[in-house]
Amino acid sequence: MLPLLFSGRSRSGRSPGSLAGGVLALLFALVSAIGLALVSPLPAQAAMDVAKQVLIGADFHDQDLRGATFNLTNLRDATFAGSDLQGASLFGAKLQDADLSNTNLKEATLDSAIFDGTNLTNAVLEDAFAFNTKFTNVVIEGADFTNVPLRGDALKTLCGLASGTNPVTGRDTRASLGCS
């Protein structure tokens, strides 16, 4: 054993200094990786997907639901009051008597949804897609419909109900709909 120590080489053929250097390099790489993991931003949380569910009376008030999917979901009597639904998809959703007051529905997909008795007071629907959406007995006081494509019959119905000014955007509901 003494000859190996004095030869400056281990049994693997490496010198003790290079072995220690390799261990230090490995330790440095491990510490660097842990440090990067601690300061790197966490990946974004996946958006909720509850498509084709029956969520009658569900309570989603004051929640961050950006990008959520509620396609073909029964949301009768559900409350979304004060929630952020920006970019959410409610394609074909049934929203009878639902509360969407004070919600952010910017860039949401509302096409083919049924709004019957739905409360949209002070909602922001700017740039939402709602061309085939059905609006019956809705409350839209203070709602902002800026850049929302609507069918002629829906627009006529909404203009007959439109009143107020949105407290977030400062836009008049009738003006945002383009009512004459």
Key descriptive features of the protein:
180 residues; mainly alpha; two-stranded parallel ribbon; 2 strands; 25% helix; 3% strand; globular
General description of the model:
The chain is mainly alpha-helical and 180 residues long. The protein is 25% helix and 3% strand. The chain contains 4 helices and 2 strands; from the N terminus they run ααββαα. A two-stranded parallel ribbon has the order 1-2. The longest helix is centred in the N-terminal third of the chain and has 24 residues, at 16-39. It is globular, with a radius of gyration of 29 Å. The N and C termini lie far apart (100 Å). Residues 1-8 and 36-44 have low confidence and may be disordered.
Number of strands: 2
Number of helices: 4
Largest sheet: 2 strands, parallel
* Low-pLDDT residue intervals, each spanning 5 or more residues: 1-8, 36-44
DSSP strand (E) fraction? under 5%
Q: How confident overall, as mean pLDDT?
A: 85
Order of helices and strands: HHEEHH
Backbone CA Rg: 29 Å
**Apparent shape:** globular
Proportion of residues in helical segments: 25-40%
Q: In which order are the strands of the major sheet placed?
A: 1-2
